[in-house]
Input
Amino acid sequence: MAAIKVLISGAPGRMGVETVGAVTREDDLTLVGATCAQDRGPTLATAAGDVPLSTDLDSLLEQTQPDVMVDFTNAAVAMNAAAKAAARKTNVVMGASGFSEDQLKQLDALANDNGIGIIVAPNFALGAIVLKKLAEQAAPHFDYVDIVESHHEAKIDSPSGFALALMRSLGENKQFTRNQPEKENLANTRGGEHNGISVHSIRMPGRSAHHEVIFGAAGQTVSLRHDTLDRSCYMPGVVRCIRDVVTRPGLVIGLENVLGL
Output
């Protein structure tokens, strides 16, 4: 069977660099091109050889004809990139954070109208997906829950896309209880709120991606936590999504739905 041709949008970024290495290590995947926001020359050097590098996604899609575009930019840029890829019947794997419900509906329409697969994964780490499933199982038994997430200081959005996914899944079928202090000495110290779920974001150097769900009941708490120690942990999930998206038309949200968890 022919190798899956892959184009990476946002290749010079932290996740883009990891994905370039992961794709070039797989025998059934071929990196055919990469994009960047600023001009860095016409080629990107990889372990498998040089590939075209461009700031013009349209021309690169036309030149390379990839089977899959992997996007690690941001939600606004990724939406535009997905539309361009879908117009050329290119499947899309999206790792950008913070898509709104309206944007997800637009992606669903793009996938269906063009007969392609689109996978949106707020987190590609298997351990994070296990955390989400365990939290969903615990949620019916508690009335109080806080989500605490921390990332590096350069992350452009808060809370993280995965924290939002956790929040929505836990609050989908339940209204939790949230303490309302009589006096708040510093505004917003209780964090963001959704269906009684409090969400807190930490941004500082030395962090990668950390998510903790804390459930509370009378006389006890239960904490579930996942720590990302190195971005290499995301790569098995990314590669799995690349292989899966070419066989699955339509929109899929979350790595758990790719893995069947």
